[in-house]
What does this fold into?
Amino acid sequence: MATEFKPRMLGIVCNWCCYGGADLAGVSRFQYPPYIRLIRVMCSGRVDMSFILRALANGTDGMFIGGCHLGDCHYVTHGNHDAINMVELTKKILANIGVNPARLRLEWVSAGEGIRFASIMNEFAEQVTELGPLGKSEGMEDSDLKLKLEAVTRLIPYFRVVQNERLHVRRDTEQEYKEYYASVECDRLFRELIADKIALSEIMMLLREKSLSTGEMANILGFTPSEISRHLISSASQGLIRYDADQKRFAIA
Ligand code: FES
It folds into this structure.
């Protein structure tokens, strides 16, 4: 008999609002799935992209971030605005590597919203259960998923610089943030500043294992051979990789 898929889910919630909401849900006996584990941090702005990528690499199927409503963050740095920028960029990065961005969810919950907390948890758990296991549901082998997550994890310091300098916007409402991150302008910046770096990082990760031909890399990474060639040409000109003419394969220089 097939057993029902029970997702592995992790929530990172801010101490002052969302954790209070979770606590209220508990004392009020509002039910939500017990397999959602919660970690408390002082502010949603403390949640780093590396936490999310590490959780996914360790088999988390759904990742929840919870903070105070916009305008209610308890810190003068307005950490929840940092959180929404970080989460929106992380969603774009996940989509780029073939991971369903719906596996990452950010919500604002106040300490008095126990019922809202439980209802979000129930809805998200249902959604992640429908999505199925991370990787398999995306049509990826475990090894490919790990490679792609590792490739983007290595770029986190670079993503931070790009986010600070070019992709960190300040908006008043969640809707306005979503509109910005779905905009043509944001997509252009993402393509120009981030997408190529991810592809190159994936190629370098592959070549660290063994030398490969253009076709083999295209097959593994799901790119066209011409996309791979474009990255190989620029990497070769920068001295990052070399071509072994005898073997007709590329390798780390
Ligand atoms: Fe809750 Fe900053 S203190 S989001």
Remarks:
- The chain has a mean pLDDT of 94.
